[in-house]
Structure formats: C-alpha cells, structure tokens
Design brief:
The structure holds three protein chains of three kinds.
Chain A lengths: L9 H9 L17 E4 L2 E4 L9 H5 L7 H8 L5 E2 L3 E2 L2 E7 L2 H6 L5 H12 L4 E7 L5 E6 L2 H5 L11 H10 L5 E5 L1 H11 L13 E7 L7 H12 L4 E5 L7 E6 L2 E6 H4 L20 E5 L6 H4 L3 E5 L2 H12 L3 E4 L5 H24 L13 H7 L1
Parallel strand pairs in A: 6-8, 8-9, 9-13
Antiparallel strand pairs in A: 1-2, 3-4, 5-14, 5-15, 6-7, 10-11, 11-12, 13-14
Helix pairs in contact in A: 5-12
Chain B lengths: L6 E9 L4 H14 L3 E6 L9 E9 L15 E4 L2 H11 L5 E5 L6 H4 L8 H10 L3 E5 L1 H8 L5 H12 L6 H11 L2 H15 L6
Parallel strand pairs in B: 1-4, 4-5, 5-6
Antiparallel strand pairs in B: 1-3, 2-3
Helix pairs in contact in B: 1-7, 2-4, 5-6, 5-8, 6-8, 7-8
Chain C lengths: L11 E5 H11 L4 E4 L6 H9 L1 H4 L2 E4 L3 H13 L4 E6 H17 L5 E7 L14 H6 L3 E2 L4 H18 L3 E6 H4 L1 E6 L24 H20 L5 E3 L6 E5 L3 H12 L5 E5 L2 E3 L3 H8 L4 E5 L5 H12 L1 H4 L3 E3 L14 H12 L8 H13 L13 H16 L4 E4 L16 E4 L4 H9 L11 E6 H17 L4 E7 L28 H8 L2 E5 L4 H13 L4 E7 L3 H7 L4 E5 L14 H6 L4 E4 L4 E4 L9 H5 L5 E5 L2
Parallel strand pairs in C: 2-3, 2-4, 4-5, 5-7, 6-7, 10-11, 10-13, 13-14, 15-16, 15-17, 17-18, 18-20, 19-20
Antiparallel strand pairs in C: 1-8, 6-12, 9-11, 21-24, 22-23
Helix pairs in contact in C: 1-2, 1-7, 4-5, 10-14, 16-20, 17-18
Classes of the chains: A alpha+beta, B alpha/beta, C alpha/beta.
Chain lengths: ~375, ~200, ~650
C-alpha cells in the first residue's frame, strides 16, 4: 500500500504551489534559507532541500490555510464581515501634504501612515516596494519618511516584500512595518501563528501591516513585452488602472497618457492571481485602495479608500487625523456596497477557478471548503 | 610468512592524492635494485581526482609477472585509508592476507553530501579482521600532521610495512632507495616519517 | 632529469612502459618528439621533454594530435628520427593526416605510439586503435612488458626506415602505466646529422592508386619480416589441447591463468607482438597443431577477426577449429583484461572448476562489498577553481529559469557531469565538442528552442579544438555562452603547459597567446572573472545568458590549485563556528556539505554540524562565502 507522505517542506511547496501554478511570488519563502529566491518576477528554487517540514511551506499563502484560525487568533472575530474580512470601519482619506499627494499614486494615505508610524517610533523601518526604470519592483527598507516618498507609487508587478521583511528581521531591525498585497498579508498572518515555533522568533518584529487592495498583478516579462510593443521610444513615467468601467490601463509618458485596453492587458495577468480570493488584504491592520467618487475619476484618483481592521490600525488612523496629516471626506453613498460586491465577486471567481483547477468541488487546493465564510459564498 | 617464499603480491591502496603511486614506485625500485623481477600496475589520471586508487606490486625472484594481481591473491595490503582497505580485501584478500591500515578516513563526496554512509570504525575493524589473517592499525595521518604534513602518511605506512617484516627488504635498503630519489629537506622529512613508521610497536 | 637518459648499458631499472618507450626512442637516436597530452600516453613525451636539452632533442607539446603528427613528419622528411605519441581519442584527430601520410611515406624512422585505455580509467571512450593500422595499411606493434616496449620502440624506427612508412605501436593502460624491469641498452653517440629536406622529391599522396598499391605490397614484405620477429613467441607443448593467441598485456595474464589452473602442459600460448599485418606462416603452423583456439586481447576482437580470416584462407591445410573469444562470449567485449577473465574462459572451455577463495570467505567478502563500501565518485580537488565556477554557473542557470544546460568536452571540468559539477553537463564528447554543440543549439531559436546553452571548455582544449567551433558560432551568428575555465595548465593529464601559459615543453619562455584577445578577434563578446568571486561570476553569467545576440565568452580565470599548492602557501585558515552553524535545521539543511560538497568539509553526525577536514582543506575559503549563516570563518594566514 502506498502511503502518500505529506511533505511540508520544499518538496511539498514545489508540488502543491510552484508546479501547480499557485505561486504569487510574494516572497514569504525567500531569505529564510539559501534555496528559495525570486529573480525577475519568478520564484526560483536554487537547490533542492530534503527537509520534510520547513518555513517555506508553512508560511506560504498558497499552502493549506486555516483561515478561521487566523481570524480568531489575530483579529476580533466579532468585528468580522464575510465580504471584507476583519472590519472596524471604511473611510475615504488623502494626505494633507500636497507634496505627498503629488508623488503618490492616489491619495498618499499609505505614505502618510508609514511616515507617522516611523516618526512615532511605532516602527523603526518600513518595507516598501521600489522599482527602477524596468517595472520590476524590489522590496526595500525605508527608515525615514523621505525614503518613503520616493517609493510611493503603485506597482503592477508583485514586489516580493515578505522576502525583504525576512531579510530585515534578520538584520537587527526590531519594529518593522510592511506594505503588503493580499497574498503577502496572508503570508505574514500565517507567520504570526508561528507554525514552527523554534524558528519563528523574527515574526515578533512585525509591528504593522498596511495592506493594498489588489485585483491582480501582472507578469513582468509579459508586461515588459506589452509595453515595449506599445510605447516604442516613449519613456514611461508611470502606470495606473482606473476603476473597471474605464476598462483600460493608463500609461503615463512624458508626452501624456496613453491608454491600453484591458483586453490587451489581462492576458499578462499572473496566472496565480486567478486563485486569489482576497481583494482588500483582509489580514492587515489597515487596507488601502483607490477611491470612487461621484465627481469622476479625475477627482477620485486623488483619494484613497481605507479599511481599518485592528486596534493598531485604528489608533494610527486616529493619530493621523488628530495631527491633521490625513484629510477625510464622507464616503459616498453606495461605495461600501460596491466594495463588498467587488470583494465577493473576486472570492467567487477564485473558488470557481480553484474547483476547475482541482477538478473537484470538494477540493479547493489551499483553501478549506469547510471554512464558514467560503461555505456562505459557495452557497 | 614463509621465509622460503620468493613471490609476493603487495597492494598499496588509498584515495587519489595520498601518495600511492610514489610509494609503490619506491618499493618497486628497491626490489629491482635487489635483483628481483618487479611489476607494478597502478591507477593514474582521472581516477586520481578523489577516486579509489591502488597499486599492485608483484615481486618475484623468478620472472616478470602480469601487472594485475588475480582475485584473492594479495599477500599484503597497505591501505592509506580504512574503507579502501576493505574494498581491496573484498576482491583481492584471502584468509592469509595481512593488512596494514591507516586509521584516518577520507570521506567520499557522496558521504559528505549525506547520500551514502561511511561505516563506523568498529564495523570496519570487525570486517577487516574477518577477512584477513592479521590487521595492523597505524594512525599515520595524525602522526604525519604532527610532523607537519598529511602527505607524509604514506612514508609512515611504508615504515610500518618494513616493521612488520613480511618482505625481504630491510630498512637500510629502503633508506638507500629514498636517498636516490630525494635530497635535501625532502629527503630528511621523508626519512623521519619512515623512522616514525618503523617505530610502531606491533604485536607480531 | 629523468632516469630514462641514464648512460649505463646493462643496468636494470624499474621503468613504466611509457618510460621504456621513451628510453627505446633515445636508444634509437630519436631527435624530434611531439604529442598532445592524453592519459595513458602523456608520460612518454613528458619524460623525453625532461631530457630534451642534455640529449639534444626537440620536444614539443603540440596543440593537437594532428599537428603533432605533422610536426613529427617534417622531422622525418628532413632525415631525423621522430616519435609522436597520443591516446586513443587523439588518433582519431591525427587520423586525417595519417591516412595521407601512409601514402606519402617517410624518410627517417617515424613511430606513432597510441595508448589505449581499456576500462576507460581516464578516458571518455574505450576505443581500440588497432583498426587504424589495418585501415591505413601500416605495420602495428604491441608490446607486452616494459622491457619489450623498449626493444620494440628501438626496432620500430629501423623497420619504419626500411619500409619507408610510418610504424604504429599500441600500448594499453596496463603496459603504458605498468612498471617492470628494463635492462638498458647503449645510447647512440651524437651523429651531428644536418636536417635537410630533399626538394627534388615531392612528398604527397600522388599518384594515389599506385601508392595505395605499394602499401599493400609492403604488407606482404612485412608479413615475412614479422614471421621471423622475436616479438612473436610461443610457449607450451608441441601439440596443445588448445592454443591461446594473445597480444599486449594478455601475454602475462594468459600465462598466469594457466599456472593457476595447472594447465601449462595442456595449453600453449602464442604471443603476437606484430599484430598487423599478422605473421601468417607462423600462425598457420600453430593452428595446424591444435583443435581449439582462445583469443585473449583487450578491447576489440582485432586478432580474433584477422586470425579467423587467415583460418578461412587456409582451412584446407589446418582443418576445422573451434574458436573461443569475444564472439563466443568467453571473453567480454568491454573492460580491461586480467588473469581472472582468462581463467574464466579456460574454465568454461575445459570444464575446470577454479575457486580463488572458499565459499565462506566469498560470502563474507560479498556482504562487506555490498553493505559497507561507499562509492567514491570522482570530483574536483579541494580548492579547485572549477567547483567555484560550476557553483556560480549553476546558480545563474537556476535564476535564469529557462531550463538552461551545459555542454562539454574533455578535461578535469568534464567531471562536472557528476556530483562535483552539480550534474550541469548534459552532453559532450570529443575535444571541442561542447562549443560545436552549443553553436548548433544556438541556431534553433527559429524552431522554438528557447533554452540557454553554456559550452564548458578548458584553456588547453580551447587551443586544441574549440577555436574552430567558436569561429563557427561567431560567423553563423549563433546565440551561445562559452565558458573558458582557464586554470593556466593542462590539469587532467598532469599540468602540461599550453600556448596560453607562456612556457613550452622545453621549458622555454614564450609569449603567451591571449585567449581573451583571440575570442574578441573572432567577434565574440568577452568578459573575464575570477571564479572565487562567486557573486561577480554569477552576475557575469547572468549578463551573458540574458544577452540574446551572438557568442558570449566568459573566461573564468584562476590557476589550478594543484599548481598553486606547489608554489604558494594556503591563503586561509578555515573553521566552522559551532555557535553559528545551524546544520541541517530549517534555514540551511547542510548547504555546504549536502549541496556544495567540497571534500574539505565533513558532517559531524554527533554535533549535527559541519566541520572542516583539516587534512583535506587547502584553505581556499570559498565555502565561507557560500555559508548562508556566515558560520564558516576564513582567517588570513600571515
């Protein structure tokens, strides 16, 4: 009789995540050991590792995850909503400092919150993404508010920021904040549960997670060739994706904005993103995303929507407000419902895709079909 | 061993780089000088790069022998490495074979990597003794390290071989061979190593 | 100076077969000696080179075997006896010219020695060189002992001159690298002969068919000469129950087998020292007197086939025979010969049981062999720059993530096909093949081929055979990365110099050929790196891999540690800090011993940590740079 061993090390990770096409290149497995790294937007296994159990597998947001345990242990379960996760409130904010707003992608809320956390000593370093001129972002450690401003734009390719956190936590920094995509926020949450107790002391250095709303990320190689084909010699200064009704990607060049239809962009979406069920980075202290306003996109692009999820997040937002660092405006009617709907749509799509991938409605690969939230949604 | 014996099969074995070829050549020269027919078959080239090596030394007062000893026909095995002693014994040994073995292991790459296991020394001892008449243990590498260089281990082993007195070759005769091949500091250190091996106190 | 030049006629020395060949050449008054190094042939020229100056010889390491034969031929044409040595693969390279030289003919004695490597101890093939003699219609000699190797060599020069053709001699590992007693003959006194090419004669292959005809006539004359040669010898009864026909190393194995079986009085042994053309009359005479024949020879059934051909021609005279050998599967078609193989064959033919050891001992030995003997895979020496090079190339190919692989040819670095080189090498073969293959793979993009290909090449091999394929790649716009592992020597064969080193076989200083400049002149993009700079080397590899256009050459330059060790002290004292080493725990899983695998490291089972084997470690310090926890400490000595 063949007993299928449950490899919870590199072998398991390779089979269940990498070869299965689930890896998002979040960086959770990287910089813990010599064998896992990320290069040019690809997860790389440098050499094989024989261990039957390892942090690479335990921390990965695409290995089996008991979401309910995470919610119960890390959040106030009474404040939990099936659509948007742990929830203390939804706000519309922007940086009060116009200079921050100018260099930011949207309202500059993330930059403002991190800068405040640094100034207040809540964290002594922040892991944020930086990209050269190549659209290939890398995680960097910012130790001052001015370090942050230079990096304050959205990246459409995943920056393996958890890898940078792993590195930073080893390097002697004691209080670290991380800007995380939903998959990265999940990885950090899994780390916080300390699945391999003897090895996980570094996670105590994680003091703040600012999540980013994320519909999907692009594959770097494909984005690069898409842009190369479209732009020719025009040098690109930024990218943006307006709300879905625009159905386009804006490429900001020195000669103005060029729009590429999403139909052309979507084939470049990282395949693993179709299995993600989290739009709003539910496992963070505060989640930040772009806003919708009745005045239209040109005004909305100067604002953020913010979900506060934890006590820590709440205090930080309150402090930013009392110091006048963040400006607030009333949430337009219907925004909450729209966000909920978008979130639920992503969850449904992910479940559908996972079922298709596994070939069985009982097998959701890394997710638990018995999870109360998923059961509600699967109906 | 029978003092009337006029034909000897000696194997010097070890790992590439331990000075196996030089040792066999020196012993062979000493015997040719004494008027014996000597044939040596040895391993060269690629196999020296961390591989098992052995020299077959065949000494006869009657005629030139073939360069390879037939299965089970080794009289004496001088092993510069313990597992190599066993490896050679399994093919060339017989119940009358005498083994002189350096006790310091050199681990093969697959042992270093953990793919294969290196036997415990007690197991090696047991098997060596099962497959031979007598085993002499020499901590040649450790002594050589004390003398300044592990490579001197081979000369310590030859000293030990002369000490067990199974071959018609005297210390003085071998000393002469050494001085024909080396000079200066190198001769001096090799002679010292030889003496060191010759000092071994064996229960013969 | 090598003992081969000892002027002491009658003195008995212990000489290796190759030394005996070199001595024989000296006794024959050889003047010019050439070779490309190749085990087991290398020592012939190495010994001659060491006595070149005092003996008034010209000795060279040629850049390949074909050039070696050409250089030796020029000497012969000019009236100087010449010797050219090579291993079996080398004869393939030289054969292009050999198959013209046979027709062209020679002036002064010219001996081509080829050393075969049955069991492929140090070779990539187990090829039998002898069919080349038949192919080229040239005489072939095969010595059995060191003494005979010397005598045959001496005689071969005279024979070559008498017949006006190049003479071939085939050694095998167990004659070339066996040592035996050799009685020295006299060395000729210097003749002061002026080298001179007679330009009234053209030396070429024309008229081809007439010269071809002449070659075949030569064979008839050679058969007569060989029939009287003392190198062909019979021992045994007048009318044996069976006859062993053997050559080379088989001569002594056969005798020993008969002694061990007690069959000396029943079975005769006919040793053929002149294996092509065969001494027909002598063989037919022996065949007449026996009903059974066993062929004992190494590698192919060369004697066996040719004797059977004779037997067919003379079937009326000799009557029916039963033949045993490789065709009958009494003797294996592969691997080197030994007495046990002959015993096996004779045992089957005569239904004799032979037991080397008691069944009990046999069983005990088998159990030990099966359970207690870890294998010893060949690898790079401690401190070898190749290990560091392969480490960086492996890491670069992994990061590149396009299923890249490496091709290779011949040299120490070919061991990279095994654990020492992380199994990177996937296909290769002859000298220069790695680059030729890569040149081909690099042209397959239009068929959807998108894997990067890295051709691994040594510095000596570069000059031997890798320049033409690199030119080919540049000329044909092939996309490849060629890595030249420049360790400043021909390491595999024992550290012979080559054109890049700045010294020749005679020990003269010469202007080194600049590999980098050569590659640039072909049009390749060249970068140079020190393999011990792991990060820099990896980056250079990544750059080369990511460049989609043309031939990229990365020269990884660091002197062979074996050479360095002789000249320089060790740079570092290396140790493992047990406070920091996390061993096989998550976060390392024994990277240094399990993956990097330098023989200078060992795994301490009790501590579950890595340790340095101070007997083996040479202090290169590379492991300190790969340790993820910085637990391996390198401290500069001095």
């Amino acid at each position: 009789m063949e007993i299928k061993s449950q490899h919870k090390g590199q072998k398991g990770l390779r089979e269940k995540v990498l070869d299965a096409g689930l890896c998002t290149n979040c960086g959770a497995c990287t910089n813990l050991c010599p064998y896992h790294t990320s290069y040019q937007d690809n997860p790389i296994l440098i050499d094989t590792c024989d261990r039957e159990e390892g942090r690479c597998y335990a921390f990965c947001p695409r290995t089996y995850t008991d979401l309910q345990a995470l919610r119960q242990n890390l959040f106030n379960i009474d404040e939990f909503t099936p659509e948007l996760g742990p929830f203390k409130g939804l706000y519309m904010t922007r940086a009060a400092d116009p200079q921050v707003r100018r260099s930011a992608q949207h309202g500059g809320t993330v930059t403002t919150l991190l800068a405040l956390a640094l100034q207040e000593g809540l964290i002594d370093a922040a892991v944020v993404a930086e990209e050269g001129g190549t659209f290939l972002p890398a995680g960097v450690v910012a130790k001052t508010p001015s370090d942050l401003v230079r990096r304050a734009r959205s990246k459409f390719v995943v920056s393996p920021n958890v890898a940078t956190f792993n590195q930073a936590a080893k390097s002697g920094l004691e209080k670290i904040g991380v800007v995380a995509t939903p998959c990265q926020a999940l990885a950090l949450a899994k780390m916080r549960l300390k699945p391999l107790p003897s090895k996980d002391s570094n996670i105590d250095k994680l003091h703040l997670v600012i999540g980013l709303f994320c519909g999907w990320a692009l594959s770097w190689r494909e984005l690069k060739s898409l842009l190369q084909g479209k732009m020719g010699k025009n040098s690109i200064v930024g990218l943006d994706i307006p709300p879905s009704k625009h159905h386009s990607m804006e490429v900001h060049t020195q000669n103005g904005i060029i729009e590429i239809s999403l139909d052309e962009v979507l084939p470049s979406v990282r395949k693993a993103c179709q299995y993600c069920y989290d739009l709003t980075a539910e496992f963070s202290d505060v989640s930040v995303g772009s806003a919708r306003l009745p005045e239209g996109w040109e005004v909305a692009r100067g604002w953020n929507q913010v979900i506060v999820r934890t006590q820590m997040g709440q205090e930080l937002i309150a402090l930013a407000r009392s110091r006048g660092l963040l400006e607030f405006r009333d949430l337009p009617e219907g925004n909450w419902e729209k966000l909920q709907k978008a979130s639920v749509n992503k969850k449904r799509a992910a479940i559908q895709n996972l079922v298709q991938r596994s070939g069985s409605s009982k097998d959701l690969l890394y997710l638990d079909g018995q999870d109360p939230v998923l059961r509600t949604l699967m109906g | 061993m029978n003092p009337e014996k006029n034909f000897y099969n000696l194997i010097i074995t070890g790992v590439g780089g331990q000075g196996n070829v030089l040792s066999s050549q020196l012993i062979g020269q000493a015997f040719v000088h004494k008027g014996y027919f000597t044939t040596i078959g040895e391993t060269y080239g690629a196999s020296q790069r961390g591989g098992s090596v052995m020299s077959h030394i065949r000494i006869s007062s009657k005629k030139q022998q073939s360069p390879l000893i037939p299965k089970g026909k080794a009289d004496i095995i001088v092993a510069l490495e313990p597992v190599e002693a066993l490896r050679v014994l399994t093919h060339y040994g017989n119940p009358e074979t005498v083994v002189i073995v350096n006790t310091r292991p050199i681990y093969p790459v697959d042992v270093i990597s953990g793919k294969e296991a290196y036997p415990e020394f007690a197991e090696i001892e047991k098997s060596l003794e099962t497959l031979s008449r007598k085993v002499y243990y020499v901590s040649a590498t450790d002594q050589a390290m004390e003398m300044g260089s592990p490579i001197l281990g081979n000369m310590i082993m030859i000293g030990a071989l002369l000490q067990v007195n199974l071959l018609p070759l005297s210390m003085e005769e071998f000393r002469q061979t050494l001085s024909k091949n080396f000079n200066g500091k190198r001769l001096e250190t090799n002679l010292q190593a030889l003496e060191q091996g010759k000092k071994m106190e064996f229960h013969i | 100076m090598s003992i081969i030049a000892l002027d002491a006629p009658g003195k008995e020395l212990l000489l290796m077969g190759n030394e005996a060949i070199a001595r024989g050449a000296l006794e024959a008054g050889v003047k010019v000696c050439t070779a490309y190094p190749g085990t087991p042939s290398t020592d012939i020229i190495e010994n001659l080179a060491s006595v070149a100056k005092p003996m008034g010889l010209y000795v060279e390491w040629s850049i390949n075997e074909k050039v070696a034969l050409e250089v030796a031929s020029a000497a012969s044409f000019s009236g100087l006896r010449a010797l050219c040595a090579m291993k079996q693969n080398g004869l393939n390279v030289a054969s292009d010219y050999l198959l013209s030289l046979n027709l062209i003919g020679i002036e002064a004695g010219l001996l081509l020695v080829t050393c075969d490597d049955p069991s492929a101890h140090s070779s990539s093939t187990e090829q039998d060189s002898r069919p080349f003699a038949k192919l080229a219609d040239l005489p072939l000699l095969e010595p059995s002992t060191s003494q005979e190797a010397k005598e045959m060599t001496k005689w071969a020069f005279a024979l070559s001159e008498e017949m006006g053709i190049v003479c071939l001699m085939r050694g095998v590992t167990r004659t070339s690298h066996a040592r035996g007693n050799v009685t020295l003959g006299p060395l000729p006194s210097p003749d002061g002969r002026k080298a001179w090419f007679d330009k009234t004669r053209q030396r070429n292959t024309h008229p081809v068919y007439q010269k071809h005809d002449q070659l075949h006539r030569n064979l008839i004359r050679l058969e007569e000469i060989f029939a009287a040669s003392p190198f062909n010898q019979y021992i045994g009864p007048e009318r044996p129950k069976a006859l062993i026909i053997t050559c080379g190393s088989g001569w002594l194995y056969s005798q020993e087998a008969l002694e061990l079986l007690g069959l000396e009085d029943a079975v005769g042994v006919l040793k053929i020292g002149t294996t092509w053309p065969l001494p027909t009359t002598m063989i037919i005479e022996k065949l007449e007197k026996t009903p059974k024949v066993l062929f004992v020879e190494e590698v192919d059934s060369f004697l066996e086939g040719n004797v059977k051909e004779l037997a067919a021609d003379f079937s009326g005279q000799i009557g029916p025979k039963t033949f045993f050998g490789k065709r009958s599967q009494h003797i294996p078609f592969f691997g080197e010969m030994n007495a046990d193989r002959v015993i096996d064959a004779l045992g089957k033919i005569f239904q004799v049981r032979y037991q080397a050891r008691s069944p009990r001992y046999e069983a005990q030995a088998a159990e030990v062999a099966e359970k207690m003997l870890p294998s010893r895979a060949l690898g790079f020496c401690p401190g070898c720059p190749h290990r560091a090079s392969y480490w960086s190339i492996k890491n670069a190919l992994q990061l590149d993530n396009r299923q890249g692989f490496a091709t290779y040819d011949i040299g120490c670095y070919a061991l990279g096909r095994g654990p020492a080189g992380y199994y990177l090498l996937k296909t290769g073969g002859a000298m220069g093949t790695g680059t030729g293959l890569a040149s081909g793979f690099g042209k397959l993009a239009s068929f959807g081929f998108d894997q990067p290909v890295v051709a691994m090449c040594g510095d000596s091999t570069f000059f031997h055979a890798a320049m033409p394929p690199l030119v080919n790649a540049c000329y044909n716009k092939s996309n490849l990365v060629m890595v030249i592992l420049d360790n400043s020597t021909t390491a595999m064969t024992g550290f012979q110099p080559h054109p890049g080193v700045g010294r020749n076989a005679m020990g003269e200083e010469v202007a080194p050929v600049d590999i980098e400049a050569v590659c640039r002149s072909f049009g390749a993009k060249v970068s140079v790196t020190d393999p011990f700079d792991l990060e820099g080397t990896k980056q250079k590899m990544l750059q080369a891999l990511e460049d989609p256009v043309g031939a990229k050459v990365v020269i990884m330059r660091r002197q062979c540690q074996m050479l360095k060790g002789k000249e320089e002290k060790l740079p570092y004292q290396v140790r493992v800090n047990p406070e920091i080493c996390i061993g096989d725990d998550c976060g390392c899983d024994r990277l240094c011993t399990r993956v990097f695998k330098c023989p200078g490291l060992m795994w301490d089972k009790k501590l579950a940590q890595a340790r340095i084997d101070e007997v083996i470690c040479v202090g290169c310090g590379v492991c300190a740079d790969i340790c993820p926890e910085k637990a391996i400490i390198k401290e500069e000595i001095r």
